[in-house]
Amino acid sequence: MTADSAGTDSDVEAAVRENHPALITYITAGDPSLEETKAYVEALDRGGSDLIELGLPFSEPIAEGPTIQAAINRALEAGTTPEGFFELVDDLETKAPLLVMTYYNMILQYGAGEAPRVSDSDAVSSRNKPDVRPFVERAAEAGLSGIIVPDLPAEEADPLREACDDNGLDLVFIIAPTTEGDRLETIMSQVSGFAYVQARLGTTGARENVSGATHDSLARLSAYDVPKAVGFGVSKGDHAAEIVEAGADGVIVGSALVDIIASSDDPREAVDELETKAAELKRGALRGSTGETAAGAEDAPEPEQP
Amino acid sequence: MSTGERERDENGSGRTGTFGDYGGQYVPEALMPALQELEDAYERYVVENEDGFMDEFRERMRDFGGRPTPLQRADRLSERYDREIYLKREDLVHGGAHKLNNALGQVLLAKYMGKERIIAETGAGQHGTATAMAAAHLDMPCEIYMGRTDVNRQRPNVYRMRMNGAEVNPVDAGSGTLKEAINETMRDWATTVERTHYVIGSVVGPHPFPKMVRDFQAVIGDEARSQILEKASRLPDSVIACAGGGSNTMGTFHAFVPDEESAEPRSADDSSGPNPQERVDLYAVEAGGSCLDIDEDAGLAPNSATLSTGTDGVLHGAMTKLLQSGDGQIVESHSVSAGLDYAGVGPELSHLVETGRVTPVSVDDEDALNGFHRLSRLEGIIPALESSHALGYLEEAHEDLGDLVIVTVSGRGDKDLETVLEETEKRDLEAAPAVEVFDG
């Protein structure tokens, strides 16, 4: 449910507002296995994540850079399925609310290849027409609080938004550096949970510094009373500080965490590193909210990559 | 462009760019303003011919591209099948395939839009070649993404792209074919969208690409329709075109889609013809590969027969028919023809199949190779392996196709010679010359 429709903050919106400045973390479910994902999510939770995004892998991740693309490939090779993903979420107990981040075809196809899970008796023996509702209902049942779909613009989102509203889930929209004018107005009127502000053009991936586009985007959004969290390229505590100081209510970090998982030989070591990294990012965000960005710098900014 | 298309495309859903249940715009938010800008440019320049855009396009297609292409009566095929067989010779377009119709149109449009850079994906290399040629012709910098597997199996086209000044970027992900090349081009576009135009190579992708590419390719069917009326004084009973993404298919079919049973003559020109036809049957011939099943465990389809066997879903920006697993993962497709090797298909074709206007059929690798050799030997035309599927279907189904048949030869087969030799050697093909012939 959205703040507008229910008059109260949703779990997602409350998590961002009440933990201001919020840390939102992402990892890909099933990378390298669902069992390890469970330990990793719990580590991110302990480390201070205020919201956790779990990627449900899709074979054609067109919005992802090489790091998350590789994680998705590892997860698919490990046999990660939507049902396995939901069973993982069934088992997770975190203080941070969980969101699923996936591509639209995964949502459409859930339940299409088998007898419908929902009680409508129009069951057909062959494959069903794609429908978003079985996925959303299962997501709500598993305890997820929201959905992010990188290839679903607001123009195509009516069916999913209605299903999310009916099941108390937030549907988070991405605001790109190219989103301006009427489009910005339209999207901001539909946002629930928080606005996912894309820091720069392009795909996901850790970067060495914060893009100037972040500041421009936050300035464009300043008039809207919706929590704003910035992602795409955030990898360090100092980035988090700078972004929060620029006016963001939260920071979103994915590739830098996936890098830890990918480069670790020992899952237990990865668990510790993820918890430490989350804590560093949260400290950075807090520093940004007190205006101590430069004084507390943990690592000096590096020149912009060409 | 023929009149009446707006009425045909209307579906009452309230969404833009859809064909019945198919089409739409499913892309990252960063690309949406670019699609709006492109849609606006498409409406103004392509649909309304603002600033004489379409006049310039047609003039360049005539002088640079070599249009119109002939509609040739294939004498020996006509004799073999005991009916009139006509070939629409898109292999004679500059560059050797119909692909230039679209590439030149889009690069010219990018120029009108003030874009500074062209990117494109390619499978068999024909679209990449056409885009590189169009970009050189119109003085635009150009980069082409191509799967590593395709780079290896289509080397002549890689050389041709480089000759025309384009950079070719091999893509190593997945099976290294068209699907991966499209993903990578979309990523480039999402990063550079403000100054770059992505020349999508088929009637796939988000709106307005399916309509725009179809409009640039519709010249194939428009010419074929008037040429057959001139040569045979009637419309054909059947039109056959190979289908991968579907640009050759939609380009060929678009002018004939309204030729349905009980339809009134479409125009005063038609009614002046001596014998207007009741219905033109349209056959989209897909790559049957080695088998029509999908191996879900392996994530593989040993075919690219999306219209025949696919299910509805979203890939590369559009709702359409796809080769996918029960969970929604896109499976790797296969065809002996790199140009047909794609797990998706254009949304308008999905709609025309769903409504029964287009009949999807498939031809396996072996019958396509036989089609390749047959046309080469009987008519002196070496067809692309893509087109060879259409010729394979002609062999198989000619008795059911009526007295007058048009087959589109979408491109020439020079690019495929290495593949054909290799694949022919593995098989005992009736129509093929002996392999020793090639040893010197």
UniProtKB/TrEMBL annotation, chain A:
One of its GO terms (molecular function) is tryptophan synthase activity. Residues 280-306 are annotated as: Disordered. Coiled coil: none annotated. SUPFAM superfamilies: Ribulose-phoshate binding barrel. Pathway: Amino-acid biosynthesis; L-tryptophan biosynthesis; L-tryptophan from chorismate: step 5/5. CDD domains: Tryptophan_synthase_alpha. Keywords: Amino-acid biosynthesis, Aromatic amino acid biosynthesis, Lyase, Tryptophan biosynthesis. It comes from the Archaea. It is an enzyme of class 4 (lyase). GO terms for cellular component: cytosol. The active site is at E53, E64. Its EC number is 4.2.1.20. It catalyses: (1S,2R)-1-C-(indol-3-yl)glycerol 3-phosphate + L-serine = D-glyceraldehyde 3-phosphate + L-tryptophan + H2O. Tetramer of two alpha and two beta chains. The alpha subunit is responsible for the aldol cleavage of indoleglycerol phosphate to indole and glyceraldehyde 3-phosphate. This is Tryptophan synthase alpha chain. It comes from Natrinema halophilum. The gene is trpA.
Automatic annotation (TrEMBL), chain B:
It comes from the Archaea. Pathway: Amino-acid biosynthesis; L-tryptophan biosynthesis; L-tryptophan from chorismate: step 5/5. It catalyses: (1S,2R)-1-C-(indol-3-yl)glycerol 3-phosphate + L-serine = D-glyceraldehyde 3-phosphate + L-tryptophan + H2O. The modification N6-(pyridoxal phosphate)lysine is found at K99. Gene3D superfamilies: 3.40.50.1100. Keywords: Amino-acid biosynthesis, Aromatic amino acid biosynthesis, Lyase, Pyridoxal phosphate, Tryptophan biosynthesis. The keyword NADP does not apply. Signal peptide: none annotated. Residues 14-23 have a biased composition (Gly residues). Its cofactor is pyridoxal 5'-phosphate. Residues 1-23 are annotated as: Disordered. GO terms for cellular component: cytoplasm. PANTHER family: TRYPTOPHAN SYNTHASE, TRYPTOPHAN SYNTHASE-RELATED. The beta subunit is responsible for the synthesis of L-tryptophan from indole and L-serine. Belongs to the TrpB family. This is Tryptophan synthase beta chain. It comes from Natrinema halophilum.
